[in-house]
């Protein structure tokens, strides 16, 4: 009697797990459907992109990728890709260096007005980007840096991303202070303690910062549209708009093909560092 009741009690558990797995699978399919639609549409002829609601194309139009690789406005896709990588790489380098230095000052050093300054920095997270865009544009225009990559890279070296400073601060506060004290006994000053002791231990938070910076900068359209005018300085994000504006008839097939190409670096970058992303988020006080 006991064995029968035990078996009956286990059945709802199995059905519950099955329902949970089916629900997760359904949610996964819903989230992956836009990606599948993008891949399928990039291979559709122009008349099927708008007229047909079928997911799979009736005819594979590989010429969409040929047109996408030719680039836009006499600028090859390799030039567009190198421009995007230059801006995204510079932004990643700037955020990792400047935000880690600012975070080290707030998390490990003692100085006057540290608390109010940290609170003021955190408050800037709520400041809309568009509120500071016009003053920044006026400054860069007076410096003669408009239509160059400097307005997109230089602010990253000034620790302007308060979110990443806060993330790294939370991580550094969890590191034992005995490590710095031992380094100080060995004759290390603040900078040597930072570079030799703290910075290597902060790798998960730094990689998290690098991943988010790369994704946000790569996908940025509005800021790049404001500062870049010449087609040979365009990124892949700006080039996608040219498929719609270059002629009276929109080239949706090549545009979606270039969208797939633009998506690949983000996916590869994320897959390469996703393990550190989870570790960094879990160790920085930002757990859900």
Descriptive key words:
288 residues, mainly alpha, 14 helices, globular, Carbohydrate ABC transporter permease, transmembrane, transmembrane helix, MetI-like_sf
List the helices and strands and how they pair.
Layout: H1 2-41, H2 46-51, H3 63-70, H4 77-108, H5 114-123, H6 129-142, H7 150-153, H8 162-172, H9 178-185, H10 190-201, H11 203-219, H12 222-227, H13 236-245, H14 252-282
Approximately what portion of the residues adopt beta-strand conformation?
Answer: under 5%
Cα Rg? 25 Å
User: How many β-strand stretches?
Assistant: 0
Largest sheet at a glance?
none
What is the oligomeric state here?
Answer: single chain
- How many helices does DSSP assign? 14
Compute the separation of the termini in Å.
44 Å
Q: What does the average pLDDT come to?
A: 83
The gross shape turns out to be globular
Order of helices and strands: HHHHHHHHHHHHHH
Q: Helical content, roughly?
A: over 70%
Question: Structural class from helices and strands?
Answer: mainly alpha
Regions with little confidence, pLDDT below 50 for 5+ residues: none
Organism: Streptomyces cellulosae
Domain ABC transmembrane type-1: 81-273
Main location: membrane
Keywords: Cell membrane, Membrane, Transmembrane, Transmembrane helix, Transport
């Amino acid at each position: 009697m006991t064995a029968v009741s035990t078996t009956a009690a286990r059945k709802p558990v199995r059905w519950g797990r099955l329902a949970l797995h089916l629900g997760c699978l359904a949610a996964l399919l819903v989230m992956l459907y836009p990606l599948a639609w993008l891949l399928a549409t990039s291979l559709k002829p122009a008349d099927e992109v708008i007229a047909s609601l079928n997911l799979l194309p009736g005819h594979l139009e590989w010429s969409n990728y040929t047109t996408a690789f030719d680039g836009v406005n006499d600028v090859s896709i390799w030039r567009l890709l190198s421009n995007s990588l230059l801006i995204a790489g510079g932004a990643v380098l700037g955020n990792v260096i400047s935000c880690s230095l600012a975070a080290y000052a707030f998390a490990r050093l003692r100085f006057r007005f540290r608390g109010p300054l940290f609170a003021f920095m955190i408050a800037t997270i709520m400041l809309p980007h568009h509120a500071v865009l016009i003053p920044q544009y006026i400054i860069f225009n007076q410096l003669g840096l408009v239509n160059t990559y400097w307005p997109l890279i230089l602010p990253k070296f000034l620790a302007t991303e308060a979110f990443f400073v806060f993330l790294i601060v939370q991580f550094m506060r969890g590191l034992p202070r005995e490590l710095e004290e031992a380094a100080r006994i060995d004759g290390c000053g603040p900078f040597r303690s930072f570079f030799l002791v703290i910075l290597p231990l902060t790798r998960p938070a730094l990689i998290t910062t690098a991943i988010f910076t790369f994704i946000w900068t790569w996908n940025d359209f509005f800021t790049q549209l404001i500062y870049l005018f010449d087609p040979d300085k365009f990124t892949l994000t700006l080039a996608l708009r040219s498929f719609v504006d270059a002629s009276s008839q929109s080239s949706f097939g090549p545009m979606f093909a270039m969208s797939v190409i633009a998506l690949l670096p983000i996916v590869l970058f994320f897959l390469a560092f996703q393990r550190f992303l989870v570790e960094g988020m879990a160790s920085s006080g930002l757990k859900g």
